[in-house]
Design a protein that fits this description.
Layout (H helix, E strand, L loop, with lengths): L2 H19 L17 H4 L7 H19 L4 H20 L12 H4 L1 H24 L5 H27 L1
Helix pairs in contact: 1-3, 3-4, 4-6, 6-7
Length: 166
Amino acid sequence: MGVGLIKRIVLFAVLLVVQALVLNHIHLFNCATPLLYVYLVLLFPRNFPKWAILLWSFALGLCVDTFSNTPGVAAGSMTLIGAIQPYLFEVFVPRDSAEDLEPGMRTVGVASFSYYTIIMVFIYCVAFFTLETFNFFNWAQWLMNIGGSMALTVVMILVIENIRRG
């Protein structure tokens, strides 16, 4: 068992526990809930197998669904961004970079990592709140949930990445 796998398992467990015990109970202005567990998918390296990214993403989404009482919503959304992650990360990576490059502010730059994070979290929030609402009757609340949760999640991820970087 490699060190990378152990780090990933610990990150999986920490994000799951923090989300289930703390972040699920935060609802700023009745529309913004931090969805920090998306951070796990953002950190998969460039040469990580696509099937493994899908498996890790689905497993974390399923565990979050179990503790959050959102049947299949997080699992479906996490699987979606797990499928998109390898291709979207390639857009923000310099062509002459290493094959085992890991996403981070230090490795790809602050601007590239920020854009990458914003796009991934936006896609996740749109999928998550669309599946959760499953109708567009109250589209203003839907948009506020997407915008508020996205902003709060992106800020938290960038702060954690900045602390990790330093």
